[in-house]
């Protein structure tokens, strides 16, 4: 058990002879800095109790806790072993890969590259030769007590399509037991470095996994360069409500990924967000915004118009709403491919004062004759 965490053990009793009695339960042997308690503290023969142990600040090591049951006719004891371990080091080790892959757990084909975002080295995940399956580098770390923002840079070398080859990255919150996708599957070959980031909860344990997938096709090996994995100070709290939800101020207030611009084809006003491109594009494009729900809660609404002449198997619009406070993600707009020229809307109920991230997405498979894009407009909270 890691310092600061807790666990439970079930203590059972049984009748071996005679009649049932009341058994009083106690626990001893708790190391300094830890805690242990039984609930309930008395049971009738055949009943059970839950032992809850908190590692607290106990010195790392293995300890023996003794649970004693005392009844009128007899006293019996049982032992429970407690192993306390120190948490992983706070922060990222060797996030710039200047010391090779030290501090990282590797799977598949990995190496360092002299093509770096900063400094002299980056991690090359995948290979310049065809490779079958996933390769990755991963690191488990503890967020600073004050929280912060985890970020990394990536450069994908992918001449196939996202259907077969891709880069992706996940962040598992080991403390909460949830996993978030920091980098959705991406296949590009622009030569540009891009970044992804995620907010960290203070003192939580996390595992970051940076991945590359190749389908082993002989003529298009795929690899991804990752660099400058850092934890920065936590950003200021997001504003309450949506900023520039009508896109009348361009894309100000929104985080853009892939191909996005403004369009004069609007639901209301003079502008909308065009996510995706009128030219073929490979993979996901999106605009996203993190905000706080009002203290009274409310309903989030947005309008969308899809321009998709392919099928939903290959091209689509979709939208997600992540409740950052609860650590859950809902799909507000299921994958949709249509070309009716009509505007439609989606809505979701917000929990008061929760932090949310709304992501409005368009996916195109880069097929030459049917580029797909989606117009989004009038994002409001009422």
Q: Per CATH, what is the topology of the largest domain?
A: Jelly Rolls
Question: What average pLDDT do the residues reach?
Answer: 93
Shape assignment: globular
> CATH H-level name of the largest domain... which superfamily?
Galactose-binding domain-like
Strands side by side in the biggest sheet: 8-11-16-13-14
Number of domains: 3
CATH class (first level) name of the largest domain = Mainly Beta
What percent of residues are in strands? over 45%
Note the run of SSEs as H and E: EEEEEEEEEEEEEEEEEEEEEEEEEEE
Outline the biggest β-sheet: 5 strands, antiparallel
Rg for CA atoms: 27 Å
Describe the oligomeric state of these chains in a short phrase: single chain
Q: Could you estimate the helical fraction of the residues in percent?
A: under 10%
**Global structural class:** mainly beta
Question: How many angstroms does the end-to-end distance come to?
Answer: 45 Å
Number of helices: 0
Taking pLDDT < 50 over at least 5 consecutive residues as the criterion, the unreliable ranges are: none
Count the E strands.
27
What does this structure look like?
There is one protein chain. With 382 residues, the protein is an all-beta fold. Helices cover 0% and strands 53% of the residues. It starts with 5 loop residues before the first strand and ends with a strand. The mean pLDDT is 93.
């Amino acid at each position: 058990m890691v310092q600061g965490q807790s666990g439970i053990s079930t203590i059972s009793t049984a009748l071996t002879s005679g009649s049932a009695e009341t058994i009083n339960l106690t626990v001893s042997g708790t190391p300094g800095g830890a805690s242990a308690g039984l609930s309930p503290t008395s049971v009738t023969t055949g009943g059970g109790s839950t032992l809850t142990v908190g590692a607290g600040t106990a010195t790392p090591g293995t300890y023996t806790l003794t649970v004693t049951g005392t009844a009128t006719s007899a006293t019996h004891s049982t032992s429970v072993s407690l192993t306390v371990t120190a948490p992983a080091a706070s922060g990222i080790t060797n996030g710039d890969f200047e010391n090779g892959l030290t501090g990282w757990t590797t799977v598949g084909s990995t190496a360092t590259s002299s093509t770096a975002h900063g400094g002299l080295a980056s991690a090359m995940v995948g290979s310049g030769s065809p490779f079958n399956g996933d390769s990755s580098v991963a690191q488990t770390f503890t967020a600073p007590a004050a929280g912060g923002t985890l970020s990394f840079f990536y450069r994908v070398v992918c001449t196939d399509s996202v259907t077969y080859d891709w880069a992706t990255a996940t962040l598992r919150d080991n403390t909460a037991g949830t996993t978030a996708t920091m980098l959705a599957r991406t296949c590009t070959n622009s030569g540009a470095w891009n970044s992804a980031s995620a907010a960290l909860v203070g003192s939580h344990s996390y595992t970051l996994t940076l991945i590359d997938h190749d389908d082993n096709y002989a003529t298009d090996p795929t690899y991804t360069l990752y660099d400058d994995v850092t934890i920065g100070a936590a950003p200021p709290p997001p504003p309450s409500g949506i900023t520039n939800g009508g896109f009348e101020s361009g894309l100000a207030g929104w985080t853009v990924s892939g191909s996005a611009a403004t369009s004069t084809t609007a639901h209301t006003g003079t502008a909308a967000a065009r996510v995706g491109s009128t030219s073929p594009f490979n993979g996901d494009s999106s605009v996203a915004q993190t905000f706080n729900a009002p203290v009274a809660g409310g309903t989030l609404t947005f309008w969308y118009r899809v321009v998709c002449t392919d099928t939903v198997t290959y091209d689509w619009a979709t939208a997600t709403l992540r409740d950052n406070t609860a650590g859950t993600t809902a799909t507000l707009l299921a994958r949709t491919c249509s070309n009716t020229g009509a505007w439609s809307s989606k809505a979701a109920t917000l929990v008061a004062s929760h932090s949310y991230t709304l992501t409005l997405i368009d996916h195109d498979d880069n097929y030459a004759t049917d580029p797909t894009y989606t117009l989004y407009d009038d994002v409001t909270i009422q």
